[in-house]
Amino acid sequence: MVSMGNDIDTHLGKRLRRRRRLLGLTQQQLAGAVGVRFQQIQKYECGANRISAARLWQLSEALEVPVGYFYDGLSDVRRETTGESAEGGEMFARKETLDLIRAYYLLGERPRRRLLDLAKSLNGGGPEHADA
Question: Of 15, 65, 75, 88, which sees the most CB atoms within 10 A?
Fold first, then answer.
């Protein structure tokens, strides 16, 4: 199953890139944090090089996420490779979305909760708000 292995490497690389960008880190900064050259980060991000378990642990620590973060959505990889897009995948690639998420995480915990509540209330009270 070489192709599935490549799909996993590519998926992990995309998640790595997404989180690095979300935190506003350059490849050079992340590379310095885990003791590799920035070219290695580039290779991880495009799926050209496989990320070892030890390196994945270091990356998760540097990016302040659990190791499982990198595997989130992996079950959707098969659908993506057959032409079906994962729900919301393009949305997270937009600069506007990343800017909003960065701004959100710059807030303290209490203002973040208030902003989230506001956003949910502006959503119009979909099915998840039926009991409200």
Answer: 15
**Tokens linked to 121:** 């209330």
How many CA atoms lie less than 13 Å away from 63 in the CB half-sphere? 28
Task: Please enumerate in sequence order all residues whose Cβ is within 8 A of that of 129, keeping only pairs 6 or more positions apart, or say none.
Answer: 120, 123
C-alpha 76/C-alpha 98 separation (Å) is 21
Predicted confidence band of residue 36 (pLDDT cuts 50, 70, 90): very high
Q: Quick one: tokens of 84?
A: 């079906």
Angle between helices 27-34 and 53-62 (to 10 degrees): 120
pLDDT higher than 70, residue 129? no
Instruction: Tell me which residue has tokens 């799909």.
Output: 7
